[in-house]
Amino acid sequence: MKIRNPADLGAGLVVVVIASVFLVFGRALPSGSATEMGPGWFPGRVAWLALAAGAFLILRSLRGASTRLPPSRLRPLVAVVAAVLVFALGIHRFGLLLTAPLTLLIASAAVSGSSLRGRLIAALVITLGAAGVFVGALGLTIPLLPN
């Protein structure tokens, strides 16, 4: 058996694993029926549909035309992982107004071709929007500035 499309195989396996996890952990929820739905009815149906879609992708990877995966690029991976770590480690220590723009600037290093000015403006707008929504409108207790 030859794998003809590794991208479909990888995507199918990821979807099957995630759907299986949802099915295993959701089996304790009562399903009910279509007319009297319990808390597990809709998530269970979505998980079964995802499982079927993943199986379809796996089968398609074995039957489709042969393709090559594009070469992996390290810079986007490192930039996104670093941005997540900086946010997780910095949000409570440095506050949202300092951590968010730094996180966004690090994450924007994953994309080439944008100007530093554009990145700074985007970071400022997104930071102020996040502060307005999460702290102002929703009242979450996220520190805005360092303690």
Topology, element by element:
Layout: H1 6-26, H2 41-63, H3 74-94, H4 96-108, H5 116-137
Strand coverage percent: under 5%
Distance between the termini: 60 Å
Mean pLDDT figure: 88
Number of helix segments? 5
Largest sheet: none
Stretches with pLDDT under 50, minimum 5 residues: none
- How many extended strands? 0
Compute the gyration radius: what is it? 22 Å
Shape: flat
For the record, the count of structural domains works out to 2
H and E order: HHHHH
Structural class: mainly alpha
Helix content: 55-70%
Short overview:
The protein has 147 residues and is mainly alpha-helical.
Structure in words:
The model has no long low-confidence stretch (mean pLDDT 88). The protein has helices at residues 6-26, 41-63, 74-94, 96-108, 116-137. 10% of the residues are buried. The termini are far apart. Helix content is 68%, strand content 0%. It is mainly α and 147 residues long. Helix 1 (6-26) runs antiparallel to helix 2, helix 3 (74-94) packs antiparallel against helix 4 and helix 4 (96-108) packs antiparallel against helix 5 (116-137). The longest helix is centred in the middle third of the chain and has 23 residues, at 41-63.
Features of this protein?
single chain, 147 residues, mainly alpha, 2 domains, 5 helices
